[in-house]
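4.2 Preliminary Data

To establish feasibility before requesting continued support, the project team ran the inverse folding procedure on a target of 376 residues. The structure was first converted into the token representation described in Section 3, and no sequence information of any kind was made available to the design step. The complete token record follows.
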């Protein structure tokens, strides 16, 4: 386990939070793995219910806060971002973070011309201390923590105004005002589908197009955190991916996940690999393979788990075909959307593989852990 000091060195807040979220999801995965395989009808119903719930969350937010936030356009357009966010009082943590990060003059400048994704106080409460509320943030003195906080806030800003209706349908990305310190760590990814807008596969836009004099504001329900690791680094960190790691190294595919890219990796666990025949069923067997035909077969299996485009779980839709790196023509897998989970199926799989955890967000893609090896 890393020391707490390392977590809060420059840009490393994300690493702590990502490990925290992955660990939480793995506990849920262990519990869920004991449940019976759901039917496709059940999975589809769950996916549709999720959309209904998120639409209701947006409607409820607008119902609760709309009358306060929808003051006259004239009144709001005479106020800068920080002044608009003073009311209602659900952005105290965000405002405290702006002040602590010495960004008050930036966000109050008349020349700002930005899009601001503003997390609510409840969104911040999901983070570890001292980033979880206004009081704790105001008490931060560590320079590295302040630097991480500054990058976090800048990651919520786009360098031009963008209204809700200007986000393209489907998947897209936008450059934030965060300085680029690693590959893709200054990009925010959007999923615009089912009448909802999600950021980085998770954070839901609750209220949009709040116009200030120097920016447009979209309220979000999760704090956006820039990625800090590559897919390769994630694979090397956790022993439950040792079979997959060995297979990628043996076939020469591991290197792709160390450099730039926008991949989606559906990552079978060691338990998933154990269901395959030897020598493909564990890391030791895979590492011992020398036969060229077996290596070619293994490479084909792995390519069927990799897309060269970034898909968060929300992007999997209802039976969406996801093209993989495997040889055509039968190189697509079928997805069913979720949020912190989802489902995916190969052409020859009898059942959908469950994704849990989903949306492991990295600099060069997104990784979804699955409980089966996909079969082309």
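Position-by-position output of the design step:
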């Amino acid at each position: 386990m890393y020391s707490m000091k390392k977590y809060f060195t420059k840009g490393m807040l994300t690493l702590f939070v990502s490990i925290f979220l992955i660990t939480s999801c793995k506990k849920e995965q262990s519990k869920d793995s004991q449940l019976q395989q759901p039917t496709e009808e059940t999975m589809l119903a769950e996916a549709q219910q999720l959309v209904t719930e998120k639409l209701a969350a947006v409607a409820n937010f607008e119902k609760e806060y709309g009358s306060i936030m929808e003051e006259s356009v004239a009144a709001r357009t005479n106020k800068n971002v920080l002044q608009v966010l003073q009311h209602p009082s659900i952005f105290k943590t965000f405002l405290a973070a702006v002040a602590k990060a010495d960004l008050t003059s930036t966000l109050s400048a008349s020349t700002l011309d930005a899009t601001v994704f503003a997390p609510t106080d409840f969104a911040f409460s999901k983070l570890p201390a001292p980033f979880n509320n206004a009081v704790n943030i105001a008490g931060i003195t560590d320079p590295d923590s302040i630097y991480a906080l500054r990058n976090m806030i800048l990651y919520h800003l786009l360098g031009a105004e963008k209204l809700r209706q200007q986000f393209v349908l489907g998947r897209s990305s936008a450059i934030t005002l965060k300085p680029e310190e690693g590959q893709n760590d200054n990009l925010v990814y959007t999923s615009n589908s089912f009448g909802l807008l999600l950021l980085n596969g998770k954070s839901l836009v609750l209220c949009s197009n709040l116009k200030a004099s120097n920016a447009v504001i979209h309220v979000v329900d999760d704090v956006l955190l820039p990625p800090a690791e590559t897919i390769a680094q994630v694979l090397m960190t956790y022993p439950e991916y040792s079979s997959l790691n060995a297979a990628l190294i043996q076939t020469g595919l591991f290197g792709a996940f160390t450099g730039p890219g926008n991949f989606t990796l559906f990552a079978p666990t060691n338990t998933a690999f154990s269901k395959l025949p030897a020598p493909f069923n564990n890391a030791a067997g895979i590492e011992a393979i020398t036969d060229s035909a077996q290596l070619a077969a293994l490479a084909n299996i792995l390519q069927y788990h990799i897309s060269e485009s970034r898909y968060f779980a929300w992007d999997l839709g209802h039976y969406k075909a996801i093209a993989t790196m495997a040889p055509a023509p039968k190189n697509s897998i079928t997805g069913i959307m979720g949020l912190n989970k989802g489902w995916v199926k190969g052409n020859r799989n009898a059942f959908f593989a469950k994704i849990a955890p989903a949306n492991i967000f990295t600099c060069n893609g997104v990784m979804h852990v699955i409980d089966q090896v996909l079969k082309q």
